[in-house]
Structure formats: C-alpha cells, structure tokens
Amino acid sequence: MEKFTVIILHYNQMSYIETAILSVLNQNYKKIELIVTDDGSSEFDKDKVSEIIDKHNKNHFDYKILDHKKNVGTVKNLNKTLKKATGDFILFFAADDKLYNKEVISNFSKEFKNNEKNIITSQCIMYDDKLENALYDYVNPKMALQLNKKSVNEIYEKMCEGCFYGSGATCYRKIIVIVVGHFIKVFLKNMGILMKIINLWKIGLIGCIF
C-alpha cells in the first residue's frame, strides 16, 4: 500500500486546527503520514496539537509537528515541509480547511491506480467561517470531466482563462516534487503555469467532492 503524506499548513488558525486534524485522522485509508507545520504563528500550541493527535490517532498514523519560529510565507513553509515528507503522494491544505469525509484519501488512491495521472484535482466546497454552512462549490465538475478528454495544451489554455482548481483538493505524486525541486509561488496561484512547466506529465480532474 502506497503512503499519502497530508500536510496541514498553519498560521494563526488554532481555533480550526482540531477540525482539520480530525478530518485526516478519521480517513479510512490506512497508510497516511500527517505533518502539521506552523509558519511562525504567534498562537501556535505544539503541545495541544500533539495532544489532539495522540488522543484521536486510532489508526496509528505517523505524524510530525514542525514549529518554525520565523514567518516565511505559505510557499516557503510548504517547501521546507516537503523535505520531511516520506509519502508516495502529497496533499496539502490550510488549517482552516478540512477533508470532506473519511473517503477522500481512498478516492485519490483509486484514481491514481486507475490511470497514469501524476496530479489529481477535484471539487471542493467553500464553507462559512465556522465550517458549518456550505456557501458554494468550487470547481465545476462538468467542466473538469470534459477537460479530461482534451490535450495538455487545451487544458492549459482553458485554465489560463481563470484558475478554477482548489489547491487543497489537489494531490500530487511525489515524483513531481522530486523533479521540480520545490513549489514556487506562482504554482499555487495559477494551475495553468504549473501545467505548462510540466506539460509532459498527465493530469486528471475528477468530479466528486473532496
């Protein structure tokens, strides 16, 4: 069974961190590495994070807590953290987000096994600040599924019209990190540029909610 590394990026979001962590620990996929990484927050409580994980880690997932003392920004924090990741696949999201249900990682695993894609991106839902009421879906599933039939250049051109993928609902094979070396800021802002740079790699979009 291949390992998924799930990275939770934290910056002054302690009021949400437990919800984010539990959404990972409750996954029904059995081989997950959880990394919680803080970007020099004024309120990060490493002991509390450890306590939450130890209390609810029924699947005995491996985990790391990285407490960076200096604020370097989301992308640099992510790049530092990627060096610690040991999974075959990488998924990352902010500490004020959460995985939709317990099958998210299993769904990603099935999609990677069923095709030769190196990146799988899916639909996500935007909630209110209490993570209770859904506001709208982000990523049009009909458009995403239609794009799977297009060439890399056609997908690139469509995404340059507007970035409609959710970075927190996108999973990468570790090979991408190895070959590219790191993420740069523009990758997280415009999937089209990322696709142009790695246009020889296969990317898939799926319609279900993650």
How is this structure best described in words?
By secondary structure, the chain is α/β, with parallel strands linked by helices. 37% of the residues lie in helices and 25% in strands. The chain contains nine helices and eight strands. The chain has helices spanning 14-25, 46-56, 74-82, 104-114, 141-147, 152-160, 174-180, 185-189, 191-197; strands spanning 4-10, 32-39, 62-68, 89-94, 119-127, 134-138, 170-173, 203-209. Strands 1, 2, 3, 4, 5, 6, 7 and 8 form an eight-stranded mixed β-sheet that branches. A hairpin with a 6-residue loop joins strand 5 and strand 6 (134-138). Helix 6 (152-160) packs antiparallel against helix 9 (191-197). The longest helix has 12 residues, at 14-25. The protein is globular. The mean pLDDT is 82.
